[in-house]
Amino acid sequence: GHMPGMDPGACGSCSTEADICRQVMESCAVLLRDSGYEVLTVQSDELESIVGASDGFGADIFVSIHCNGAVTQAAKGTEVYAMSEAGYELGLCIDRAIVDYLGTVDRGVKDGSRLYVVNQTEATAVLVELAFITNQDDEWLLNQRTEDFASALAAGIIEYCR
After folding, report:
1. Residue 8: its pLDDT value, please?
2. 135: Cβ–Cβ under 8 A, 6 or more apart, which residues?
């Protein structure tokens, strides 16, 4: 989600979406590679290039990682956006893993058909909102348990791939 140095994405009191997503993406990729999966990591503000890279790679699944933001600081939790039946199943695996492992509020799997990265890739695609960076408790989790978010994300992906 977003691009450090160019577009920070949603901002919390002490962190940016782009930086947290990069850390989670890199750690999750290592865990997946160590489990025998081929992984392509891409972080860019150009949605077409992200989707193009995924399709060119021949990805079976596409996971877009984000931190949510809201005007109200009360909003908190994890949610996943999907479009297809397979995407919904992938989303459920990821959502359950994050909620169970980190104790975030479960906001569920929602219709992501309007999201470019979900509806324009050839792969089974989801967009994951790890937690709300604009909520004090969620931002603390995002910063202090970054590796746990990566582990939960990897576990959800591996569960789906079994």
Report:
1. 66
2. 70, 73, 74, 75, 76
